[in-house]
């Protein structure tokens, strides 16, 4: 099996990869996944330097960064940032390096299944679940939920569940949701998984 290095934005993404992404690829005899923590504060320059290092030690390299908190993105779209990552990594082969930035942040995956989220957070009524599903439906999908700093997926979760902690709750919720549902409900995330599969 090939070795895949994943440059992860921070501790939450690192844990998510360990709990959800790595087992999926290993169990399907596809790859050994190794996440490497960037420690936050992701920018094109920092990521490019990290990716160049990883390319020397892995068969395939990819990334898992949030679009929302990406430093210095300005008016660039997520697609533009991914192209800039490719240039910064000085990699001409998209099979070797697969840039990926999550729209709009990691919590898009967490809210993709409101029932799992609410169950894990100890909700005893359908009120929170219905509210989450309503704003997902309104936006046309979990990956499209983002209007402003106050209405990002993570802030919407915190309004309903103030006890929510990104690293503590996020990865276990996604593990409960499972890759099948995550891929079905988050098309862009699914495209990333497919690209990794094609690169193996």
Number of helices: 10
Number of strands: 5
Terminal CA distance reads: 8 Å
* Low-pLDDT residue intervals, each spanning 5 or more residues: none
Along the chain, the helix and strand elements come as: EHEHEHEEHHHHHHH
Roughly what fraction of the amino acids lie in strands? 5-15%
Features:
alpha/beta, Rossmann fold, 5 strands, 12% strand
Summarize the structure.
With 200 residues, the chain is an alpha/beta fold. 52% of the residues lie in helices and 12% in strands. Strands 1, 2, 3, 4 and 5 form a five-stranded parallel sheet that branches.
Descriptive account of the structure:
With 200 residues, this protein is an alpha/beta fold. The chain folds into two domains: 2-105 and 179-199, Rossmann fold (3-Layer(aba) Sandwich), CATH 3.40.50; 107-176. It is 52% helix and 12% strand. The chain has ten helices and five strands, in the order βαβαβαββααααααα. α3 links the parallel β3 and β4 (97-98). The longest helix has 17 residues, at 11-27. The protein is globular.
Give the helix/strand layout.
Elements: E1 2-8, H1 11-27, E2 31-37, H2 44-55, E3 60-66, H3 78-88, E4 97-98, E5 101-102, H4 107-110, H5 114-120, H6 127-139, H7 153-160, H8 166-177, H9 179-185, H10 187-199
Parallel strand pairs: 1-2, 1-3, 3-4, 3-5
